[in-house]
From TrEMBL:
UniProt name for this protein: Replication restart protein PriA
InterPro entries for the chain: DEAD/DEAH_box_helicase_dom, Helicase_ATP-bd, Helicase_C-like, P-loop_NTPase, PriA, PriA_3primeBD, PriA_3primeBD_sf, PriA_C
Organism: Clostridium oryzae
Required co-factors: Zn(2+)
Keyword Protein transport annotated: no
Catalytic EC class: isomerase
Amino acid sequence: MFNYAGIIVNNESIMVDKVFTYGIPEGLVNHVNIGSKVKVPFGKGNKKIDGYVIELYENASDNIQRLKYIDSIVSANILFGEKQVKLIKFMKERYLCSYLDCIRVMLPSGILKNMASKLEQRLYTAKAPEGNLYKKNYVNIYQAVKHNEGLYNKNRLSNEFGFSLSSINTLIKHQILIVKQQKIDRVSDKIYERYEARKLNNNQKIVYDSICNGREDKYLIHGITGSGKTEIYLQLVEKNLKENKDCIVLVPEISLTPQMLERFKGRFGNNISVFHSRMSEGERYDEWMRVKEGRTKLAIGARSAIFLPFNNLGLIILDEEHDGSYKSESNPKYDCREVAEFVAGNNQAKVVYGTATPSMETYYRAKKGEVRLLSINSRADNAKLPEVTVVDMRDELISNNRSIFSRELHEDIRNNIEQGNQIILFLNRRGFSPFVSCRSCGFVYRCRQCDISLTYHREDNMLHCHYCGYKERPKNTCPKCGSKYIKYFGIGTEKVEEAVKKYFPGVKTLRMDMDTTRGKDSYINIYEAFKKGEAQVLIGTQMVSKGLDFPNVTLVGILAADLTLNLPDYKSAERTFQLITQVSGRAGRSSKEGKVVVQTYSPEHYSIVSSAHSNYEEFYNEEIGIRKSMEYIPFNDIINVNLNSLNEKLLIDTIRKVYDDLQILFQHDKNVHILGPCPCSISKIKELYRWQIILKGKFDIDTKQRIKKVVYDNLKFVYNDIKLNLDVNPNTLI
């Protein structure tokens, strides 16, 4: 019998980030479980707050003083079990986050708010009409309900068949129809066209058999674009479902979800859970409950779907494994790949990574034998990889071509439009002009809350901050010197769209970026419209680079390959190679041959040369040498200690104290390098000043906890004024 519980209280202060022991009142013994949400008295005033039970004890430790007791159980639902508790503890140690952060990311907000399932009145038959009620209209109503028990409510039955509500109410009054409350899932019931299974070619079959029969628990499918990785996923899932095992299929972006749904629901039907951030609170609650109650065995979703509470997990697939979206940028700053491996290990499941451009970390692990490497070097239907041409934009300037499009790309766009083919134009920058400046005095419009230039958007004639959302209307004269020499510099996706319409009148375009996909179904609508051929040209940011399969696309134009290359970040070359290779892979995916035009001012850079050759190994060998010499990931861990505050002086004083204490902590360890403290590349966001310290080295769990203690100790008395972000192996140091 458990008389005591270890509880995480719902309080965000880092000072109370620990397990508190509470007594279980006699009346609640045997009712409090691991995963229970309870009310507990907390603090000097014994305010009743929520808590989450993560441990149960028969006896309390001797040093407990002033023991308090659980007040009540908030919800009958057991929110998580022992496997999830292990995951919570793993994440807390690995990512230096709080217990509460981990619990919140594992549970949808509707669960945390005690949301209930949606109930609706549905109609069922009780007895057949007779006597005066045995009329044709009444019999028709009865038959419609009988053939679809529980499908209709009164309004839907009336609207679909034209029956009057008074007639339906008459049958209810005479108990020929009865009304029952029924749980309704708030999810789309769209029916997808059947997606038939395809016979695997020899390369696909080798990969499939290797995973099915292999004893390893981690696999990397390194398959070039168009090599048929999705069909392998489908057949792996089918095998696991037949063995009554649950499966999770993860995609990095919501933009990929429509295509995956199209294929998976087309293959397996609609009983698939979908889980991503664009869904409503109610939809996410319903999907989580479907999984929890065992009503579905397959989930497709973005990063957070890894936390769905499956009971018999057999397979986790991470498509486009290399993508930065698998690393969370908000607390807890977890890496979905590491979490997936932990979850799989907890369930004796297999993890399958798939990509044409593996992350450096995963490929390095595969080379070391920690992950089994399975390669596919040809396209599934024997289609050719597209021809890749690299255009040196310096030559275009010498030739007096000031257009967005090089002469070669302009000619290729014209030819493909005339031939009725589709085109993708990629530029990893949204908006119309990245910055607006005065040519007289050099003034640049900047965000009032962030250390960043404002981007001009022609659609609403406003300057936008892409970090905090601040907007400002531009003036015709310089706010600083009053001159009229205000100029809009650079290009964004809006400007590309305008240029296409200018140079190729009448051509229909679609744009896929953060501005056009804010709506809930925007991704799906743009994806389906382009697939149906409602536009010839799709213009987009990195959303268009990820796995989308349009058979009629024969030309891809990469307008500014240097944008990611010139970022002051250790992963800039890797991101450039991945983006160029992935976007290039959208061309020529059917019987039509494809072409890619890469526009750059750095044609000799190894990331661009290797991507033009479609040679990952060449890029990897060059990049891994640089990473080793610079002691970056995967040879070392990186911990970013990032502090933000409205008070710049307090921030600087505090982070310098943190630095001094870290220097003392590692004074005898020459393998740990401490960089900083210094302002972040973007030194201010939303009026918060930002400074950081970077630590490079090999950090075990104990060392990480000592680093965390140093930081926490320095924030004890200023925690309300300084925001802390600890990030283990961050995606970026900007």
